[in-house]
Amino acid sequence: MESIGWMEIAMLIIAVSVAVLVVFLVKALRKATDSLDTANATLTEARDAINMWKNDVQDLVVSVKDLTDQVNRQVEAVDPLMASVRDMGEALHEVTTTAKEASVTWMDKVKERAVRAGSMTKSSWMDWVEMGIKGYHVIRSASKVLRTAPQTADALKQQDVQRDIDNVKREIQKTERLPGRSKAVTI
Fold this sequence. Notes:
Layout: H1 6-116, H2 122-147, H3 150-176
Helix pairs in contact: 1-2, 2-3
């Protein structure tokens, strides 16, 4: 038998090393192929999801546009109502201003007549002032009626205003019966 030389042993070691290297390379390439397949599947799913979301976003944009158009139509429908409410508020303001002016004028007339009626005693003059104050409350109650909702207006009209009017009528009747008075003062 011939002896194996160093050269042959080195070649055998190189051959075994190459074979082991090839086995590890094949395993690494299989893992890389699996990773690439998984990446491709993930990209395909992502592409499908993006397309689905794109359709959903387009549907959402169309829905938001329709909703915006509907809101704009409703706002346009409410605008005349708001204008009417504003006009009613201005009219109410004018009515209360007029009522206030009428009250001031009426009180001035009461004071003027009280001053002109020099024969009146101090207590009868105070009765007229009290009656004027009650008249003011009647006017204030009437302005409340004008400022409240129509449902509340009927209730206030029937209760507060009627009560105040009856009180003023009673005070006028009392004043007409004061001693030293020949007739009632008219306003």
